[in-house]
Amino acid sequence: MKRRQFICSTVAGLVVAATKPVLASQAEMIIYKDPTCGCCHAWAEAMIDADFAVTVRDTNDLASVKQKYAIPAEMQGCHTAIVEPYYFEGHVPVAAVENVLSKRPDIAGLAVPGMPSGSLGMGNDPNASYDVFSVPRNGGKPIVILSIRPV
C-alpha cells in the first residue's frame, strides 16, 4: 500500500511540475488600441498566445481611455490593457504581466512608455533597451522594476 501511495504521489508531483500555470488562461484582458496599429495587434497576439482571454477594443479616442484609468502622461504607450484591477500600458512583457497577476501587488499597473524598438510587439531587435515601470496608485512616482538591455 505504501508503495502505491509513493508512486501515485510521485506521478502527481511530476504532472504538477510539468503543467503550465493556469493563471493567464483565467484572466480576462481588454486591450484598447488604435484600429490601424500593427504593433498593438502583435502585442495582443502575444497575450493570446500566453492564454489570456483577450478582447480587443479598437478606438480612435485612446486619450479618454488613458484618462479614465489615470495613466500618467509620461508613462503612456500606444495601447492600454486592463486586467482588473490593473492596467498594462504599452509593450509590457508577458512575464511582467503574469508576475503582477500572480503576486497581486498594491499598484495601479505596469507601463512601457512610448514604443521602444524591440519591445514585445515592436520587432525582434537584439539591441533593445527599455524599462518597465511599476505605477503606484494615487499618483506616486513610477519606479523601474525591470530594465531590458542588450546581452
Tell me the domain tally. 1
How far apart are the termini? 53 Å
Q: How is the biggest beta sheet arranged?
A: 7 strands, mixed
Spans with pLDDT under 50 lasting ≥5 residues? 1-22
- Tell me what the CATH architecture is: 3-Layer(aba) Sandwich
Strand-residue proportion:
15-25%
**Class by helix and strand content?**
alpha/beta
Number of helices: 5
Q: What is the CATH class? A: Alpha Beta
Could you tell me the number of beta strands?
7
Helix content: 25-40%
Mean pLDDT: 82
What overall geometry do the principal axes of the alpha carbons give? globular
CATH topology: Glutaredoxin
Strand order of the largest sheet: 2-1-3-4-5-6-7
The SSE order reads HHEHEHEEHEEE
Radius of gyration: 18 Å
Overall description:
The protein is an alpha/beta fold and 151 residues long. The protein has a single domain (22-148), classed as Glutaredoxin. It is 33% helix and 25% strand. It has five helices and seven strands; from the N terminus they run ααβαβαββαβββ. It has a seven-stranded mixed beta sheet, sandwiched between helices. Strand 6 (130-135) and strand 7 (143-148) form a beta hairpin. It is globular. The termini are far apart. Mean pLDDT is 82; it is low at 1-22.
